[in-house]
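Study both lines:
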Amino acid sequence: MADNPVSDARLSSDGPRVSTTVEVPPQVPMVALLGPRDEVLAIIERTLASDIHVRGNEITITGRAADNAIAIRLIEQLLEIVRSGQAITPDAVSRAMGILTAGGNESPAEVLSLNILSRRGKSIRPRTLHQKHYVDAIDRNTITFGIGPAGTGKTYLAVAKAVQALQSKQINRIILTRPAVEAGERLGFLPGTLFDKIDPYLRPLLDALHDMIDPESIPRLTQAGTIEVAPLAYMRGRTLNDAFIILDEAQNTTAEQMKMFLTRLGFGSKMVITGDVTQVDLPGGTTSGLRVVQDILDGVEDVHFATLTSADVVRHRLVADIVDAYGRHDAETLAAHPPTTVPRRDARSSRNQR
């Protein structure tokens, strides 16, 4: 039989509903495609309101012609994912369905099978279309900004790309940094060494690093300077050559700190700046450097701004709902109480006047 599924569409007795039969190649185990207890079929039926029946290696889909076409494309893409050796999970099916129904020309199999790193049988890869665009932007550009809400993988994927670049000897060291700004509470005096004091601020970066590198080798790599994790203040006065540099929580930088950080860029280096402009913890009245830099560097070659949304959240499903709910609340509050401050001059116009 052919490697690709064969479709046979015909009108059913209920008029506009159509029955489409898809033949799955015999070398593909049906359980690998459909999942245990046919959970994959249940997701397709629930999303497209189609009736799906399986007999042998044939899948019959009954529904609207447009829904059947999406179901066929989805099954074809899932077959490609199975052939790549990746397991089909309910989350992967939902993500693939979202990519197909978005109306673009992107291949879900290409998006979901892109492997950045593998360690102890665990693969790190983008799980949404915007995440793949973000990863591709890091490959293509010297400076990439990843801007989006919590849980969209901004920092995790950036650290994965840094480790990949180190392992492939594209760079000689990884530098991870964050502004030491407390998130709405005062931590007070922290005992211990300097590393103990800054550890709470840098812990998320270290957690990501531990997922990708053998934890026993991290102390050796940090002592050798191959991996450096430090507060943003430690970047001043330096030139960072042959390095992959990540600035996390960039919404908590001031405009001056952002300029200072970006001008540390040396030869053979890449920078990734991540942040969420809706979670600024700076003192009242202080403008976020991440907000300002989008105006200043707009249109600059080799600088890319990647935007992620609640649709890219890869934590618990409620996180996306929470992000959306807060977004609606902020929009309603802004509409009811518009700001009374005088708009600042356009940054590019200011530069042109000098």
In short: Residues 1-15, 182-188, 341-354 have pLDDT under 50 and may be disordered. The chain is about 40% helix and 15% strand.
